[in-house]
Specification:
single chain; alpha/beta; Rossmann fold; 12 strands; about 45% helix
């Protein structure tokens, strides 16, 4: 039996009766090729089942055919970043590009040369991280998800209005009867953490409410989160709502709240600035902000490829929409208080 050879660009060119260069220009939409010739080459290529060689095309453009993706070292225990990565990878595949994953766990990478990639996507870049600092100054087209808090500036930014997001959560809790909301938030090494804290303090100032906050590391462990919750309850036992602004924190502190005799969704409301499967499966399910990480990753990749093509000016920022998902952890306190106040008025 004769094994069929793969269809190459040269095969297409020979069948169409044109040079290899003309066939390439016709299929890529470049060069000076008449519409008649272009149509003929495309027809022949489709009839033969020709599939362009992505690697060869990238080499002709003097590019690597790869983009770099950096995420914080908490990737392996964060469903948010796993979804974000998939969003970037899926969109890169649409452009026939591969993705090289870079993390700050690679300590030696901080002193190595710039990665061999055409551009970079950085998810939640942290100020003071030596790997992030090196990537931000590598001279490569760079898009960040949230702004970089250091001195360097990305070529493009995809961000959400997190200060406004926190205000939206707090307004929801206030409508449910909470008057003393507190927050457990990440530090200001990330733009996200700084924005969340800024939004909380602005809301407290607007309503004349004392700001009671506990700050934890961006990648705080479960033990650190629970210690922060205990310290918060000890310092302000009158709190009636807690907003958690690190991924997974709200579910992690539930045992601490029960130990303190608090009933989530009754005498204490609970909400998270990041939705995760743990928020949905908690008892009770926890109100959370869906940051739509997969879509955010895809938007970052889209913006990077637009910059690489020169279709978008440097300095472009895009706002990524998010959605508040209301669940049982914040649904009951107002009705309980109303019933109590009614009972007191009636003298019962």
């Amino acid at each position: 039996m004769r094994v069929e050879e793969p269809v190459t660009l040269l095969t297409v060119a020979e069948r169409a009766g044109v040079s290899k260069t003309t066939a390439s220009d016709a299929l890529t939409g470049s060069g000076r090729v008449s519409e008649r010739t272009r149509a003929k080459v495309v027809q022949v290529a489709e009839a033969l089942g020709y599939v362009p060689n992505g690697s060869a095309r990238h080499l002709r453009r003097a590019s690597t055919g790869t983009i770099g993706l950096h995420v914080p070292a908490v990737l392996t225990r964060s469903t948010y970043y796993m979804s974000f990565v998939f969003g970037v990878v899926e969109r890169a595949a649409d452009y026939d590009y591969d993705v090289t994953l870079i993390t700050s766990g690679q300590r030696r990478a901080a002193t190595r040369h710039a990665p061999r990639v055409d551009g970079l996507v950085l998810g939640d870049p942290l100020g003071g991280d030596p790997v992030v600092e090196r990537l931000m100054t590598a001279g490569l087209p760079t898009v960040t998800c949230e702004r970089f808090p250091g001195t360097a500036r990305a070529d493009g930014v995809v961000r959400s209005e997190h200060a406004t997001v926190v205000g939206q959560i707090l307004e929801h809790l206030r409508a449910r009867g909470a008057t003393r909301p507190t927050i457990i938030a990440a530090g200001d090494e990330s733009d996200w953490g700084a924005s969340v804290q800024r939004g909380y303090r602005a809301w407290c100032a607007r309503y004349g409410v004392p700001a009671v906050a506990r700050t934890v590391a961006f990648d705080a462990s479960a033990d650190e989160l629970r210690a922060a919750a205990r310290a918060l309850l000890a310092a302000a036992p009158e709190v009636d709502a807690i907003v958690c602004a690190t991924a997974g924190a709200a579910a992690e502190i539930l045992p601490v709240l029960r130990e303190a005799g608090r009933t989530v969704g009754a005498d204490l409301l609970l909400a998270s600035c990041v939705d995760t499967p743990a928020m949905r499966s908690a008892d009770p399910p926890i109100t959370a902000m869906d940051l739509r990480p997969r879509e955010a990753g895809a938007t970052c990749a889209d913006l990077l490829f637009e910059l690489l093509r020169g279709d978008t000016p440097t300095g472009t920022e895009r706002v990524h929409p998010v959605e508040l998902l209301i669940r049982a952890s914040s649904a009951q306190i107002s009705s309980i208080r109303s019933a109590t106040e009614s009972t007191m008025r009636d003298g019962r």
